[in-house]
Amino acid sequence: MRALLNLTAETAARYLENLEDRSVAPSPEALVGLTELNEPLPELPMDAGCVLEMLDRIGSPATMGMAGRRYFGFVIGGSLPAALAANWLAGAWDQCPGLFAASPIGTVLEEVSLIWLLDALKLPAGSGGAFVTGATVANLTALAAARHAVLARHGWDVDADGLFGAPPITVVVGDEVHPSLIKALGMLGLGRSRVVRVPVDGQGRMLAAEMPPLSGPAIVCLQAGNVNTGAFDPAAEICVRAHLAGAWVHVDGAFGLWAASSPKYAHLVKGVADADSWATDAHKWLNVPYDSGLAFVRNAAALKSAMSLTAAYLPQGGHREPSQYTPELSRRARGVEIWAALKSLGRSGLADLIERNCRLARRFAEALEQGGCEILNEVVLNQVLVSFGDAARTRQVIERVQRDGTCWCGPTEWQGRTAMRISVSSWATRDEDVERSVAAILRAAVM
Ligand SMILES: *Cc1c(COP(=O)(O)O)cnc(C)c1O
Predict the structure, then answer these.
(1) Residue 318: per-residue pLDDT
(2) What is the pTM assigned to this prediction?
């Protein structure tokens, strides 16, 4: 085992070092090499070291350089050194933290992390929390608690009796809602299409004045950090109005919620803590390895009602039993990396990570604008939308940027315009990476 793990550490370290010199996107040859994986199920065993060597030989060149310093696609984030190291140790531990009895360390690290996270994100202490796969499932988990609570207020026990015959729930979203939230609503039986969509402004912010009057069971879904522009819905105003009507307010803050941890950007999340539930990702801006999402619910009892699991063979002790708060029973111990990330950063390191990424995003926008490109959004956070002209030309430039390999940025559509989206989300990105990437993008744009 020791020889294998040492070989793995060497292989992984070499992989990360090589990322600096190779194209961020895998080469066409590397992708062709993947065909070697198309073989029938092997009849005979293979030595574990050989399995790893094969994986590295075929797999490593075919990876997207997401762990490197110049990957700006989607909203991805790298892995902090302490988080990656903790992830390896957690793999060796192989803990299942569904119950304290099953994994004391796995559950305690979640308990501690939950307190730290609520503190760092400026959310109400004592809120319930669930450690899940990502913001999609975090939205699902928090909205299940919302569904439970708004129907309970109207005398209906949805967890026991289901939705058939229940009073209808009004669900309000902004028109630029993330598709994963709509998917979560569909999975909860609240419908992908029966939502009330509120118009938004040019940055994707919900227009508070356009909110419909609410009555009966209602859930209002806000966004903290639009996936294209980084913009925030006016949470303070909407929370007041929604709560006066007895509605539940949920916030999808997959990456934007982390702005709360920086004194410089905390103004963006004004009013967000007044909501009733929040979803975010740790694998995005906290820079822990995939997969890692978080749901927080002010009324922990509502979350527990929606997620509770009881069976005589599953001992419930005096501790917080994680499986009472998550969709899953068995799962990996995500608190390990989250704890390690927060322990290694501290409050100041986390604020520095957020502020550095936001500063580098502004640097991208300024340099590209000077280079003659059009910036389509107000760069308030870590997201930059760049246009190189009409849709066809913008797509062509994006393709050239990806083929050049210095950096990787993807396309998006923003309110009828095609754009290149730059998301600065990794601890590893430095000023020189922005300079090199800007040069590569401008080269692609003048070709
Ligand atoms: C990324 C993102 C999601 C989905 O998160 P996953 O971790 O991919 O499930 C939801 N909402 C917003 C605003 C996002 O940026």
Answers:
(1) 81
(2) 0.98
Do 178 and 59 fall within a single domain? no
What is the pLDDT at residue 100?
95
Query: What is the CB < 6 Å shell around ligand 1?
Result: 75, 134-136, 178, 180, 225, 227, 252, 254-255, 281, 293
Q: Which residues constitute the domain of residue 195? A: 85-341
- Judge if 52 and 103 occupy the same domain: no
Q: Looking at residues 334-338, what average pLDDT do you find?
A: 98
Decide: 302 and 287 in contact? Cβ < 8 Å. Answer: no
Q: What is the DSSP letter of 8?
A: H
Distance CA(396)–CA(388), nearest Å, equals 9
Atom 5, ligand 1: residue with shortest CA distance: 135
d(CA 118, CA 127): 8
Residue where a domain stops, chosen among 39, 68, 97: 68
- Do 252 and 108 share a domain, yes or no? yes
pLDDT of 25-65, one tens digit each? 999 999 999 999 999 999 999 999 999 999 999 999 999 99
Pocket test for ligand 1, best of 132, 136, 187 (most atoms within 8 A of CB): 136
Residue 353 lies in a domain: no
Over 90: is that where the pLDDT of 311 sits?
no
Tell whether 32 and 89 lie within a shared domain: no
SS3 339: helix
Q: How far is the CA of 135 from the centre of ligand 1 (A)?
A: 5
Pocket test for ligand 1, best of 177, 206, 226, 252 (most atoms within 8 A of CB): 252
End residue of a domain, out of 306, 341, 376? 341
Q: How far is the CA of 76 from the centre of ligand 1 (A)?
A: 10
- How many whole angstroms separate alpha carbon 7 and alpha carbon 21? 22
Q: Look up the CATH number of the domain holding residue 194.
A: 3.40.640.10
